[in-house]
Amino acid sequence: MNYMTADEAVKLVKSGDHIYFQGSTAIPIVLQEALARRGHELKDVTVYSAFNIPKGEAPFCKPEFKDSFLINSLFLCGDQRKWVNEGYGSMIPAFLGEIPFLFRSRQLPMDVAFINCSLPDENGYCSYGMSADLAVSAVESAKIVIAEINKSMPYLCGGALIHESQITAAVECDDPCVVMEFGAPTPIEAAIGQNIANEIEDGATLQIGVGGIPNAVLNGIKHHKHLGLHTEAMTDGVIRLIEEGVIDNSMKKIKPGKSIASLALGSQHMYDFLHYNRDVEFYDVAWTNDPQIIRQNPKVVAINSAIEVDLTGQICADSIGTTIFSSVGGQHDFMYGGALSEGGKTFIALPSRTGKGKAKIVPTLTPGAGVVTTRFQTQYVATEHGIVYLRNKNLAERAKALISIAHPDDREALERAACERFGYSFLRLK
Fold first, then answer.
1. Are the CB atoms for 13 and 112 separated by under 8 Å?
2. 70: in domain
3. Any catalytic annotation for residue 201?
4. Beta strands in 87-217 (DSSP E)
5. CA within 20 to 30 Å of 371's CA: 1, 296, 334, 346, which one?
6. Are residues 63 and 205 in the same domain?
7. How far apart are CA 161 and CA 204, in angstroms?
8. CA angle 140, 263, 282 (to 5 degrees)
């Protein structure tokens, strides 16, 4: 490989270029910092990135660089959230699974891809490590590939590999992945998790997200049998179930015997577990999130979260009013693919109130809120107060069901709103 320093490598970027930075816990921060040092030399460099798990704010998100780097987030996270919501950058709405097509078709042009790779294997292939998701398509679409060859990056098996001959410039580093530790679920999270776990059958194929509620669900299915994993983000909770034999992937149709993901974030134990583990494979998100791939597995269980749910079952998961918080990610991909699966079930999980006591089941979404999952797709909604199935219900019936799992102190106001909105069709249900 063509090794050089980070400062030398970033000289390949020119004003007006479109560039991509790998995400998850594989952000090439050494190269980001080097590029930021060139900020005053550059103008109108468009930056794409998604689902970043950072150590701090992105080094190019500074007022003095507002004309140097134009941030176009594809899934907004903490390293760029403040910058975008102050109006200096923006977010491109897109299903995560369709972004690789936007790269490959050059609807989102790509000049330089920055990635964070493992050391090469004996055949000269480096792993994309913790973030295959968009990195594979970004590299395929880029004219220049600049890679950190990172001694601390685990080698993850599957289809997310790059040969050293494809790397334009390589920078040696030893930068450990961000470690994410999740504490025990709260009582509310545990109740939500158990409500969902009760609906999961043996032999199901899981897609499960990140955080306290997903961990609570995993705690609730530790005695299940022959579960499979075909997910977007891999976390410690599923690693425990793999180690204990609960997830054995024996019933899957797609890649039987293999746990499948597109990115990973968690503890050092998880990273060590994944290193050269051929029972776990990582792939381009265009494949992992393809609903037509997802649907081929039996009993797909897709578990996703929400910021708000309105009385008709509309799901807001990307914004708080007009303030962008994240993006659609893979929620739509798995909600759709899961619904098409034989015996599939899809869940939206959320506490009935925020930590500040604000209702999360609401008459109508907050003005400006984005609809990530439409009411036409919503199946199960779970809070700590229960779980309801909306798919075969009319609007009034949905309202009644959702009110039954709202916080008890919010139900009277929700009933008044439902009466006003749905009239006799709601009143006759009481």
1. yes
2. yes
3. no
4. 90-91, 112-117, 125-127, 144-150, 157-158, 161-163, 169-173, 205-208
5. 296
6. no
7. 29
8. 70
Per residue in 377-392, pLDDT (tens digit) is 999 999 999 999 999 9
The token pair that represents 152 in the structure block: 């601390």
What single-letter amino acid sits at 109?
Answer: P
For residue 179, tell me if it sits in a domain: no
* 200 lies in some domain: yes
Exposed, middle or buried by CB within 10 Å (0-12, 13-18, 19+), for 203?
Answer: middle
Which 3 state secondary structure label does DSSP give 275? Answer: coil
98 alpha carbon, distance to own chain's centre: 13
- Choosing from 189, 232, 384, 415, the catalytic residue is 232
Number of domains in the chain: 2
Pairing label, strands 45-50, 300-305: unpaired
Show the tokens assigned to 55: 């150590």
- CA angle, 86 as apex, 80 and 68 as ends, to 5°? 65
Counting Cβ atoms within 10 Å, is residue 29 exposed (0-12), middle (13-18) or buried (19+)?
A: buried
Residues 430, 357: Cα–Cα separation, whole Å: 27
Helix axes 411-422, 395-404, angle to 10 degrees: 180
Domain final residue pick, 113, 144, 173: 173
Give me the residue label for tokens 């998701």.
Answer: 133
Question: What's the pTM?
Answer: 0.94
Per-residue pLDDT tens over the stretch 258-295: 999 999 999 999 999 999 999 999 999 999 999 999 99
Three-state secondary-structure class, residue 400: helix
Q: Which residue range forms the structural domain that includes residue 92? A: 6-173
Query: Where do we find the tokens 């950058």?
Result: 89
Phi, psi of 235 (to 5 degrees): -135, 175
